[in-house]
Amino acid sequence: MAVQTSEPSRELSLAHARIAALEADLLAAKSERDTLRTAYSAVKLELELMKKRLFIAKAERVDVAQLELEFAAKLAELDALSKRLDPIPEELVPATPSSPPKKEKKTGGRRDLRELDLPEDTVVVLDAALEGKVPRSGFEVSYKLMWRRGSMVRVRTMRVKYRDEVEGLVSPKTYTAEMPPEMLPGSLTTPSLLAHLAIEKYLNGMPLHRLEMSWARDGVTIDRGTMSRWLGQVGAVLNETILAAAKAYALKTTFCIATDATGVLVQPLRGDLKKKQPCRRGHFFVELFDKQHVFFEYVAKETSAAVKDFFKGFTGHIQADAKSVYDVLFRPAADGDEEDVCTEVACWSHARRKYWEAAIAHCAVAREALVRIQRLFENEEKFKGLPAEAIAQLRNERTRPLLEAFFA
What we know:
Elements: H1 7-56, H2 64-70, H3 72-82, E1 161-164, E2 173-176, H4 191-203, H5 208-217, H6 224-240, H7 242-253, E3 256-266, E4 280-289, E5 293-299, H8 304-310, E6 317-319, H9 327-330, E7 343-345, H10 348-360, H11 364-383, H12 388-407
Parallel strand pairs: 3-6, 6-7
Antiparallel strand pairs: 1-2, 3-4, 4-5
């Protein structure tokens, strides 16, 4: 039996279907809107981060006063925890030796040249009309400064020859004394001239072309290319002797090494002049050994193998950034040998940068981390200049509670 549907109920069904379709479209539009809003917020945040990195990334400035207001209660709790307001005990501060009384400075007049540690020449001025006729009663002494030219000296080396006259020999043999040891065998230079060249170049900042002109005025012509080769050979000799011994000593006696790498552009070797060659990128590693030794190492490529070679045999503490090339220092070798594994000393400044970037995204936890790290830095500023034992004691008493609270 067929059932006929009335016209009103059919229209009602169509209306419900249209409403359902509109609701689905509305939900889809809302979902697309939310997606676009999220993408817009992410792009806006990324743009803000890029602007911060471009203009103030190195400073990583934050409004410390605003942070202290925001976390006043938390900071008061941390200050009580670390005894921040308590003065440093007097027994930890080294006694400063009493300084000798200062001499009163002269308000005017010529300098007293007798106070200078200089060689002295004496010139006696006579009066030809009175000398020998009138007895002397003393001297009127005055001082001036004179420049005595330091010039090249030609060193003549005379090696003795000996004749071995043996009976029966028509032509006796001749022996010559051996040449004394030389720093650069076969060159025209002596150790004193090499020392003078290195001091003028690296200590006084005198370019080689100016040294070439200066020596030419003294009558000695040595081109700058020769000087450059001399300096290169001296550097190689020092690197294999004195610097190698200093590095070996530092690796054995150092507690902590701080290191960092800087990229540099290196000109290619002169080859085909018609073909242009781009500069190659090398790397200089700076190594600070307990503030006693500073070494500079150059490598063409910044690799884990190069880093491992720099600190071979060292098992102490190393502070470096988070580059992956340093991971080889803190992990056992593939065979499980932990002989050369070092202790990683992480850098709070590098860690702080990530919290700073998160703080730009309006993260309250990141802002609290910034203010906590600021307290660590303020403690270290107070401990500057104290003996190492005192710093260790104060860090255990005042900084360790802050670190434990930070990680908790």
